[in-house]
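Task: fold both queries, return tokens.
Query 1:
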Amino acid sequence: MQHLAGSQGITCVIAILFAALACYVPAMRATRADPMTALRAG
């Protein structure tokens, strides 16, 4: 059972990293956009 716990831990860490990246990338794109241009386009 020890091997299973290690695998679950690694899987959990990888899932957290992907979730953080999925939040970080759109946030960085949003900070590069000009607010007035974004408001006019909407």
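Query 1 returned. Query 2:
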Amino acid sequence: MTVGGGVSYTDGTASDTFTIATVTPLVYNPSCAQSGTEPIQTGEIAATITTSGKTGVLHIVWAHCGIATVTRSTT
């Protein structure tokens, strides 16, 4: 499963953007949820947010039916 898209917002001189993209396709596995975690077996998405001229990226990684790991970086 893949996701992608974005949205932007402008109010006067302020402009914000949000984009999401699939880095590695998500593998849905309903048996993963039986172990008390999310039903995603593996995959990675990245969400990029830009506001007031600053950009941040969230990387969300699923592995081995575990709870997603989220890391943040700024540019």
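Both queries returned. Flag for query 2: Strands lie at 4-11, 14-28, 40-51, 54-62, 69-74.
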